[in-house]
């Protein structure tokens, strides 16, 4: 893990097309990056992804609490909730591309007319994020279900005998014991939001007019299409720095609460 990080940081200071010898560029790649309109569009979209993707953990918790009940037929319901989690990103992207299609998609049947969700720069990012939340929420749900099975039932029963119930029981008894699951759900959701790539590649290709591109896709675009390995490495370094700052902040906050 350490070597790829150091290698990417080193490569970001060079111009290289992947074939000819590297040439030292200093901070030129970073200067060009911070003067690129596409970079700021990608950064803005990543922040939108991050803000909306963080709805996955709370919704995952709600679904986990519902599915943790001992009700007849709950296994069938669980399997329905688990289904999006096992699908690949490519399949999810294709399913939602058909769903949004303004000519024959299910969305057209629901609203009564075609809406070019993926063809409108103002709606394409929101449409892709909604598609990404479909598998991400069950993923968080699985983490919380695992955490719920580890909760000591005697502690919950003792709290009920003391009069705790409903929201009070959830807030003061259950959620504190789910902190490890919450930490994992938030961290993995943040990583998923910042490294979002597959759905964008399948559903929009970063378009229209780069309006849905994110840093991970912009990095791929520069490396694969234009053979700018040094420039794409600079994008990777910036993306890693954003991810690291957010995760360290959340980790320190969680450790402070535990003290």
TrEMBL record:
The chain crosses the membrane at residues 47-67, 79-100, 169-192, 231-249. Its main location: membrane. The keyword DNA-binding does not apply. It is found in: Cell membrane. It is a multi-pass membrane protein. GO terms for cellular component: plasma membrane. Keywords: Cell membrane, Membrane, Transmembrane, Transmembrane helix, Transport. It comes from the Bacteria. GO terms for biological process: transmembrane transport. Residues 42-250 form the ABC transmembrane type-1 domain. Belongs to the binding-protein-dependent transport system permease family. This is Multiple sugar ABC transporter, membrane-spanning permease protein MsmF. It comes from Caballeronia sordidicola (Burkholderia sordidicola).
